[in-house]
Fold:
Amino acid sequence: MLKNSMIALLVMLSLGACTKYSNVPKQYHQLLDTALATAGPNAEELKKALNAAPAHQKEAVAFLIAYMPERDLKSLTADFILENTDYAFMAREQFPWAQAIPDSVFFNDVLPYASLNERRDNWRKDFYERFSKYVKDCKDIRSAIDSINKNIRDEVMVDYNTKREKPDQSPYESMEQNMASCSGLSILLTDAFRAVGIPSRIGGTPNWHDKRGNHNWNEVWMDGEWYFTEYYPSGLNKSWFLADAGKAIPDNPEHAIYASSWKPADTHFPLVWDFDIKYVPAVNVSERYIQLYEAAEAAKKIAETHVSVEVMMFKDDVCTFQGDDRVAVNVDVFCGADQVGGGRTAGPTQDMNDVLEFVLEKNKVYSFNYIGEAGQLKSMKLKVGNEPQTLKLYYK
Structure:
């Protein structure tokens, strides 16, 4: 009997250990143990959040708590955590681009309620309601990014101003003053992106290569890659600072470029207003900016001697030139007897922005050859000048 009782007790203890954090993957258990011990009296609020979260949100709540800075472990309420998580999932369920985001990206770059060391505002519900209207008709993440970028300034009425109270303002601190630093603007924009399910993080450098000072901006994740943008947008991976970022020094902490993270990364984000703060994880992304700058410079050199020619194939010359009238056909490009390019035109089911493009040397004559509907070789000659051109070809 004693032996059976001991076995039963061991089984119960084992089951208790397995259900300590119900519906939370085992990888978080030790991290949560440490976090709850660090939280002190506030551990009850964190436990409440873990217990109250719906089953499909428990891992997300565990992720937030597991990697929370100590200041948040000791102060955030269960209601704060649960509302933030609930509205993050609402965005994920509503918008198609958010549904396509891997969990790893969603957890690290959509779910978090903060980017740097800013005051912890409970902005998630408000921003979801403010910014959903700008993306509700967007079909993809690129158009959603563009819409938030274009509308955020007029929505929150905040502008860059050196008279702001402090550089690391929270969203509502900036909105109350109608002004912010580049860091405050970046925090605002990242929160707006995250509110509608767009992965975003802060990018920046503590000091440019020529020691002109610091700058922070935004990065957004799209189709497996990170792109940079700003509160005052000029397009993805386009900005006045690219020439400076391209001269970053990756192995020099003062002159490198960083991207913020929620979970631990290879280093911490240097906060120029308080270098003693080291609890903001970061990735050193200097090499990517160097490569982007080099590619932009190479493109400028090509533009001096070459020009873009877009090629579209339609059924015939009496069509309406709509998407359904397009035909997917292989096109070969010749300059004299030499083939200089080739590709396939976009068909009726492809995006209207998906256009076959060639970059060709200026002031030369080219032949665009393809097989028509009847199986015959068809050819169109084009004199390429100094300006971009669009060439319409016909299948019949």
Notes: The chain has three domains: 18-76, 100-284, 306-394. Residues 100-284 form a domain with the C8orf32 fold fold (CATH 3.10.620.30).
